[in-house]
Amino acid sequence: MEQYCEVYGCKPVIAPYTCVQELLSAMSLLRFDLVFLSLDGPEGFLSARKLREKSPEVKLVLLTDTPRYAVMGVRIHLTDYIVKPAQFKHVVRALKLAGVGRGG
After folding, report:
1. Phi and psi dihedrals of 10, rounded to 5?
2. Is residue 104 pLDDT above 60, yes or no?
3. What are the sequence ranges of the domains in the chain?
4. 2-97 maps to which CATH number?
5. With 70 as the cut, is the pLDDT of residue 75 above it?
6. How far is CA 39 from its chain centroid?
7. What is the pTM assigned to this prediction?
8. Three-state SS string across the chain, please?
9. 47-64, pLDDT tens digit by residue?
10. For the stretch 62-85, what's the b/e string if a residue is b when 16 or more beta carbons lie within 10 angstroms of its beta carbon?
């Protein structure tokens, strides 16, 4: 993320959260432009769905260990779906799809 932002001229404010509930609580107080959610399996998809319900406008990228939920990700309007291990080019694609920096 930082490497991308250096190249494409954006200044990220990165706020790591240790659990989805903590992030959902923060979303009640703060506006997020983009969320990278790194959770595997059904927990990842269900968490992404909760985030989407909380904030329909946020750009949401799910990083997960399986392509199994990619089609369902379309239904909840994920910005991108990245299967781990994430390659830099996939992160760049996700950031461009999210319209981040001059690369978007």
Report:
1. -120, 160
2. no
3. 2-97
4. 3.40.50.2300
5. yes
6. 11
7. 0.88
8. CHHHHHHHCCCCCCCCCCCHHHHHHHHCCCCCCEEEEECCHHHHHHHHHHHHHHCCCCEEEEEECCHHHHHHHHHCCCCEEEECCCCHHHHHHHHHHCCCCCCC
9. 999 999 999 999 999 999
10. bbbeeeebbeebeebebbbbbeee
